[in-house]
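[Structure tokenization] protein backbone as discrete codes
[Encoding] learned vocabulary of local backbone shapes
[Protein] chain in single-letter code, fold in tokens
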Amino acid sequence: MKEKKLSTALFVDGLSEAELKEIAVRIKLISEIGHKTTAILDLDELLPQALGLISRTFSYYNMSIFLREGEYIILKTATRPEHAKLVDKLRFKVGKEGITGWVAEKGKAVIVEDVREDKRYKAGFSYAKTRSEISVPIRYEKSIIGVLDAQSRSCGAFSQNDLFTLKTLADQLAVAIENAKLFSQVIHEGGRRRKADAALKKSESRYKSLVDHLPVGVYRSTPDGRIIEANQTLAHILGYKRVDDLMEVNVRDLYVRKEERNKNLQQLDKSITGFHEPQLRRKDKKKIWVRDYSRAVCDLKGNTVFYDGILVDITERRLAQARLQTVLKELERSNAELQQFAYVASHDLQEPLRMVASYVRLLSRRYKGKLDKDAEEFIWFAEEGATRMKQMISDLLDYSRVGTRGKVFKLLKAKDLLPQVLDNLKVSLEESEAEVKAGPMPEFYGDETQIIRLFQNLIVNAVKFRSSRPLKINIKAERLTNEWKFSVEDNGIGISPEYFDRIFLIFQRLHTRKDYPGTGIGLAICKRIVERHEGKIWVESQPGKGSRFMFTIKDLGPNGKMIDEDERNLFLEENSIGKV
């Protein structure tokens, strides 16, 4: 059973703009649904209308309301036609049957990521399209009077925001249901108006309590900016102790910069709904950054009646962003200096090294046979060391150029690049009698020279570390979310797991130069190339059975920035290239 650990807290600081917009929309819709449902006092009319409002607003695959009657929890309304046929027929024994029966007994909300793995799921209600489910108790005071249930066709479809939404709606439903029951009783008892008014006042009190405890500031102001409604959170954000103190505050006077205020007013006057991030001044004169979602509410003639807004304190986030930008700039400067140092050091060291190597070779030729064996061996060691040092400096220069000499990204066809790679390695592949196979290859944006070198280094690695078996190399690609995953698999000598990370470090070798020549730079360069394309590289291997090197390439545009699926398909269509 896959079940999420639940929390009803709604976290807003540090979220993306899209997530904050979603929270704002949800809160406004919850408020509207609450106003509408509490006005319906007929229970038979309330349940389907309330569920319809919720379903149309939040687009869940199926939603149901169960009410408790004795020891059973009974389906009273559902949005899907096949489920609606079971109204008043489908019943679960509380605590014994179904997820809703469990929720009705425990009084706890539950999110099931995959109902097929949950023993509580009722087999007779197991529709083929349902994959995940969220159920929350409808609680009035200390009693569980029902269950609000939502289902999805996807596994793991529900989030903590869905939990917050459904729990809030369940609280509102509880009030509305009890109001309807109370109203029915009042009709039968003859005191309809007095008791109905009391029920509505109680509902309004519960609704106000709910709004006051939201983790965001909520307000309503007149067209000239005077606050007429607000919650306790807004008072806290602006430095006031009581909500009543805000009734003397004008929103326009809170702005630190007049240009920000004027820009927001212009957008509201044009009925542009959105958010902005002004700097406001609290009661104690302290300056804070906020994210303000606001909209103008107009009458039938188009005249603004009032403004609704939601305020989030983002001061800590803005300060953290500023600190992060400072660190990133310092890191970029440091990296640039290191790359420049590596390039200059490797480039400038070549000339004195060539001079050393030349004089060592001159000594070897001129005094060959004239010195004792120890001296000749010393000269050989010096010549061999100079040769290795020259190769390492050359490799270091190549390594530094990956980040400093990269070309502009362009649209590449991997199926056209592989033949170039294999042609470059034709001699070594023929000598090793390697069999290379490649599956369908995609198109993506990248640095052509570096991508060719990436494939080339991985294939050379497979050839170098082949076993006594006939060498077979398989190259594959598969589509992931916003990226491509490639694999280069061989049946060579393999790698022990403890070396999986070490092999991608510069100048790291697992074997002696006598057994396998080279400096240990190839895979380090592969890692630099993949990281420049905002991907990652790793290996899976077993000693004696071969290795599978895998790497990802992000869907980047020609400017090296991330593109989404729609943008990618548009790029492909504009370049007359089919989807893979």
Q: What stands out?
A: Confidence is low (pLDDT under 50) at residues 4-11, 570-580. The longest helix spans residues 315-366.
